[in-house]
Specification:
The structure is a homodimer of 223-residue chains. Chain A contains seven helices and five strands; from the N terminus they run βαβαβαβααβαα. With 223 residues, chain A is an alpha/beta fold. Chain A has one domain: Rossmann fold (3-Layer(aba) Sandwich). In chain A, helix 6 packs across helix 7. The longest helix of chain A has 16 residues.
Chain lengths: 223, 223
């Protein structure tokens, strides 16, 4: 038994809050970011700052070029990031992204002897993403408990998604209480090289509304 | 509805047979290999030959550096590849490898509109690997059917593992009938740069025994 946990850290607002929650719960936090060829690669720089300021034990950035597969506005330059909220599953959805990231986290968790994986998925604001739903997380946990040597040896893996039912405003209130510096985080799908946000994409709009609803000043740097 | 299938192709004997089966069943085959930092990277060269000679529609090699995570003799240079068969889960097990590869295949399948993913996993010879068991595959299929936009839209994904209950000899007999050129495949965990096998590791021993049991001449080039 260790107190290790793997935290999926994108560099956005949600995953930073998730790390703060894991840290406050007493876990030794191993942060994992995936450089998957995302447009908004400045979020990886944000992840480095967030991991350091919240006291991660280690932070790994693993490269996996999902742009080779395409199919998303976030990895395919020929698909535009939309600036109006659409019905249904948005074009910013990256095929199987959370499945892939959780799988890599599972591999690292096994090496570390970590029984907990934290992911900042949220079913409220991003209800359009199939891989942010509670039933998806439950199915991944079931898979994880068959997939590994640890599982065969009887050690259960738990997928922790403490934000899954929270509103953006709730997440911001909680993170602020736990000392998250949201000025370090980048949510924008088309942030510039300095990490400054566009204020126009879905992700920016949801974030702005979240700060407004939480009654907290928005520290985001806009272009 | 398409007739597309994604085939996980390592360059080994099993996945080559799996591709031949999918092809014979009439699928348009999109082959996926993962360059995960494996010692035996000559198997990727083998995958290129196999995909070409069996008429794959496309072959993608995606890079994901699992050696950053370590924990296996196949990705960590400090762990020796054993030359005696051990009880239990071998040190050549790569943490969460099949979960990760199936996840990437799932992402590509979604982009291609493919409803079938073929994986040459085998529960007989590699019973020591937890992620080669039928219950693992069933759990992954369940996950896949919650994870994707396609699933939300009602399109079911099927994970096909036609070799899962076959012996190595049965696999070789079937592949030979379907025209697989096994001299192109590399199974050895420590093959040299020319793809020549060591004849000493577990994987070599299982392969040699398979050809012997099938009564088929072994076309493998040994060091």
């Amino acid at each position: 038994m260790t107190n290790n946990a793997v935290i999926l850290l994108s560099g956005g607002l949600d995953s930073a809050t998730c790390l703060a929650i894991a840290k406050a719960a007493g876990y030794t936090c191993y942060c994992l970011s995936v450089d998957y060829g995302q447009r908004h690669c400045t979020e990886l720089g944000a992840a480095v700052k967030v991991a350091a300021s919240l006291g991660a034990a280690e932070h790994k950035i693993i490269k996996l070029d999902l742009s080779a597969i395409g199919g998303s506005a976030l990895t395919d330059d020929t698909i535009e990031v939309p600036e109006t909220m659409a019905e249904g599953i948005p074009v910013t959805y990256v095929p199987a992204r959370n499945t892939i990231m959780l799988s890599i986290a599972l591999g690292w968790a096994e090496v570390l002897g970590a029984d907990h994986i934290f992911a900042g998925v949220n079913a409220v604001d991003y209800s359009g993403y199939p891989d942010c739903r509670p039933e998806f997380i439950a199915a991944f946990e079931q898979l994880a408990n068959l997939a590994t040597k640890a599982a065969v040896e009887g050690r259960a893996i738990k997928i922790e998604t403490p934000l899954i039912q929270l509103s953006k405003a709730d997440i911001i209130r909680l993170g602020t209480k736990l000392g998250v510096d949201y000025s370090q985080t980048v949510s924008c799908y088309q942030a510039d090289k300095q990490g400054q946000a566009c204020a126009r994409c879905d992700s920016c709009k949801i974030r702005q509304q979240g700060f407004a609803d939480a009654g907290t000043p928005d520290p985001t740097a806009y272009q």
